[in-house]
Amino acid sequence: MPLRSFTQAELILTERKRLERPLLLMIWLGVVGFSIAENAGGERASSVFYALAATLAIVVNYLATQRAMEVHVGRVFVTIGVLASTLVLLLELLVGDHLLIVALSHYLILLQLCKLFERKANRDYLQMIALSVLLMVASSLLCDELWFAVVLLAYLGVACYTTMVFTLKRGLDAAADARLACEPGPLSPHRVAWNVSRLWPGGALMQKLCALLAAMLAAGAAVFLLAPRSPPAERTMSHRDSAAASASFNSDIRLGEAGKVYLSKHIAMRVRVSPGPGGRRPGMLYLRGQAMSYYLNSRWSKRDEEMPSRADLTPLPSDALGGTVTQEVTMESSLLPVLFGLYPAVRIEPAGIARITAGRQILYALPYSKGWQISYKVYSWPQPLTAAQREFLAAVQSETEGQPSEPASTVHVPQRVTDLARQWCRDLLEQRDGNPQRRDELDRLIAQRIAERLQAACTYSLDLSEARLDRDGVEDFLFYMKRGHCEYFASAETVMCRVLGVRARLVAGFRADEHSRESPDVFVVRNRDAHAWTEVYTPSGGWMIVDPTPASPVGGEGSFWTGLGDFWESVQVLWRERVIGYDADSRGQVVKALKDWGRSLLAALGAAWDELGESVNNLLVRGYVDAVLARLAIAIGALGIGLEALFVIRAIRRSRQERRQTMEKFGVQPEQLEFYSKLLRLLGRRGFQLHPGLTPRELVQQAAAGLNLPSQALAELIHLYYSLRWGRVKVSPEQINQANERILELDRMLQAPR
Amino acid sequence: MVKRRSRPVTRRPEPIYLRPTLAGWLFLLVAMMLGFAAGKSQASLLFVLFGSMMGAVAISAVMARNMVAAVRLRRDVPDRAWQNQPVHLGYHLRNTRKRATCLGIQVQEIAPIGIESASGYCLSLPARSAFLAGARFAARRRGRIDLRRVRIRTVFPFGLICASRHVELPASVVVWPAKGELRQQLLFRGAVMTSTAPPSPVSGGQDEFFGLREYRPDDNPRWIHWRKSAARGVPVVREMARPLPEILWVIVDTCCQDLSELGRDLLERSLRFAATLIDFAFARGYQTGLAIAYSHGAAVHAPAAGQAQRSTLLDALADADANTSCTLQEVLAGLPPGRLKQAEVVVVTTDAGRISNQALAVLRGRSGHLAVIGPEQLMDMFVDPLGRQEAPCR
Description:
The complex is a heterodimer of chains A (754) and B (394).
Chain A: E1 3-5, H1 8-12, H2 16-40, H3 44-66, E2 69-71, H4 75-94, H5 100-116, H6 122-142, H7 146-181, H8 189-192, H9 202-226, E3 244-246, E4 259-262, E5 267-273, E6 285-292, E7 294-296, E8 299-301, H10 318-321, E9 325-332, E10 345-351, E11 354-356, E12 362-364, E13 373-380, H11 387-399, H12 415-424, H13 426-434, H14 439-457, E14 459-460, E15 463-464, H15 473-481, E16 483-484, H16 486-499, E17 504-512, E18 522-526, E19 530-538, E20 542-546, H17 559-580, H18 584-622, H19 627-666, H20 674-685, H21 696-707, H22 711-725, H23 733-751
Parallel strand pairs in A: 3-4, 14-16
Antiparallel strand pairs in A: 1-2, 4-15, 5-9, 5-18, 6-17, 7-8, 9-13, 10-13, 11-12, 17-19, 19-20
Helix pairs in contact in A: 2-3, 2-5, 2-6, 2-7, 3-5, 4-5, 5-6, 6-7, 7-9, 13-14, 14-16, 15-16, 20-23, 21-22
Chain B: E1 3-6, E2 16-20, H1 22-41, H2 44-70, E3 71-78, E4 80-82, E5 86-95, E6 102-110, E7 115-117, E8 119-125, E9 130-139, E10 143-154, E11 161-176, E12 181-182, E13 192-194, E14 208-214, H3 226-232, E15 236-243, E16 247-252, H4 261-283, E17 287-294, E18 297-304, H5 307-318, H6 328-333, E19 344-348, H7 357-366, E20 369-373, H8 375-381, E21 382-383
Helix pairs in contact in B: 1-2, 4-5
């Protein structure tokens, strides 16, 4: 591969190296950004290949540029390369399973690689810049991850800088061509360079770049915030949905979806809990939302009625009320129609605009959109229940829930899951078979045993990139992934209990232990607190909570990095919620907030104007100064003092700058030349101005002749000025004073009547 | 040639024109497509990209406009120029802004027909600073060329928007006919007279050695030629001769009945020859005069030396027009007879047959030496600069 050295003209005139380096970085960032986008879509092999190939080509070019050389091949080979790239594109489209935009992006990368090894002129640089920009635009259609956004931001900065340098280079080239074209023979580039400034404006370029980036990002943010958005139902996603989700309550539990779960800190509800019997405040709340007991093909569906969404107007027995734990819930309406509360909830009182149907369903009239909140009150009985409470519940449940269905008929899992469950609880199963009277106790023990074994065998993780839909979710969790989040643990627990004949069901809701800063009775429930657990039924104890999910690992060694990781997680969550999830509702809120701000500003200005008018009226009519006028006067005074100080500071700085310039230029103090300025002003008032073509000596000679002044005195003054100005002679202050006095004498002579 | 400064006249600020370049139009097209894709897909990043691209166009326009508005321009242009010779222009650029730098400023002469001009370029003009940008132009035709306006433009930062401003800077340039080469020696030295002047103290002076004579008592002993004195046995001194100043009359017959392209070309060649001859004569120290016919009459410039005379004569050649009325006889009639004596006279004509033998005889009798240069003689003794291929100046 031949190497060509930059010509002297290219080095001096066209600043070629200054363009090549940022251009290579720009191309590399574009390829990296596309690789991230492609990788997010699951195309790892091809993304790595193209990234490596581009990196290698760019490194070779960079090393050549550092040595003022250019790596290039013949045009024939470049043409062959382009044809080969076209062939690759056709193959990917016809044979491969890539998206069209991915295949086209591969084509753009290959074209750029061909261009890198071509002998480049300005036209080629322009093409490379255009190809890189198009590649980045295509990548934006594919991916919306935070990593990609960071790369995109860096790319914007480098692209702006590269384009600015290229624009300047084109001007330099045009100037050089124009100059060289007028000469009869070849010219040294140094001679041509006289036409342009030789100092590369690096600092000015960076200043312009900062201003440009700020303006562009501001414009981008403004369009992002204020552009009209279509309602969510009308959206058509032109790119793949990224395999990531934010943790939140999910009434449709489906195992096996690959992706990562982000813990969102968004507040879903606030619950004020009144102290239970004995004044005990619960440390952790299991707010039950929905119970599901039917499992098929990795998916849970509900067979039980929604609890506690149904209003219950049955009067509670008076002695049971004393033990009630009251929860005042304020939650987002987007969680409807599910209502949450501690189990067992015996009564629900909706607040606000709600109606209760004939089937005792509670329906709220508010829109199910962001920002709207509903309130309701739940009355629950804490465990353990009293006998009267159990009887009451049994009566209510027989009417509403019914008895729990037979376990085995509602879960469908592979045989190996059943075998594993039997293996874990063999001894307890034997005991239960032998002691039917201890069934309740042994069922609870079986559930606890399964929970312990699950916590030992599997780890808690939110990264489910390896999950597969072609396998049963519980089987995948137990035998392949061996890690998962609460839904997987609860599903495995419930399924295994079910196959062993224990009546269990999956419950989805929230588990919260965060107290509000304002009051210890108020629990703050966030989206990340969404949880799934198992409830095991025994006739004697009712539905008992069994939570098999282990606690998430807390930071220990390397807590700084863990903290950094948590910070990055929360930034990613913020990115997904606030930026990617920005929709018409969010825009409406932003617009509404802007309008409210504008209205409040106008109202405040109007109120201030009215106050001012009232104060002026008080001053003019009643003759007294009230507080508003006094404050206004103080503010104006302070502003005036500030402006005055600013002017003084500027004048001082300007004076110092002039003194410094005078010192640098003349080598004398400015006050030493003050006498000369006075002399010129004196003569100027009499009509003798110093104009071009007239020396100071000639001026004073004319003035002496015209005004009948002593020429010797004037000549001495000019001689002193010449000595200071050009002679660099040290002059004593006495001489300066004498000169000033002489000028005063001349002034008196001129003012004296003739 | 004296460079004159074109003083900018104080007037209202010139309007600034903004127009997208070809790249700008393509960029806007891509931005619109991206905006459409953003609206269709509702992808947040696409909205940000679309807004950034539109912001880039807007900030380009604002930045370019501000830079062009901040530049003050003054032009240095020479009074005179040779045809087809590059002429240097100086553009004094000054940035009036207090902090911001102007980048990529291009200055271009909006030249009338007949000029192929180049543009000056300033890469970086810091705040409150000045820069002299050079430009070159070549006039393709002789005569007086009026320069009126200069365009200041920039496409910085992204080359998407071109901001330009026209500055009125009136100036006039006299373009002399192109200078060629004389193949043959046309000018001969005139008579000399004996001079008692001492030898010129400066080597290369105009004095010529005439002969030796005996030493006179008032002669400077330094004049003594010692070798000859030794040979002759008596002191002898060198006697120098100061030649008479050469006088050249150039008479140009511009009367041209054939106004076809060939006829005009012949006239232009004659004028170029005359300009070459005049320039050559001044370089040799001749006192040169010119007699030339215009359509409104004949003009006679008496011989003189110096740069001013040279400029006057060449200006007269530059102003020559297509004359069909004023003949050579009228020009000859306007010549002062007393200044022809011992002068070399060169008559340049497009048609030697138009000159009568009688007129030639009279002229030959009055002058020291007469040469008539017609089209055939031009071919032999003049290398026309426009006769060979030359790289055009942009």
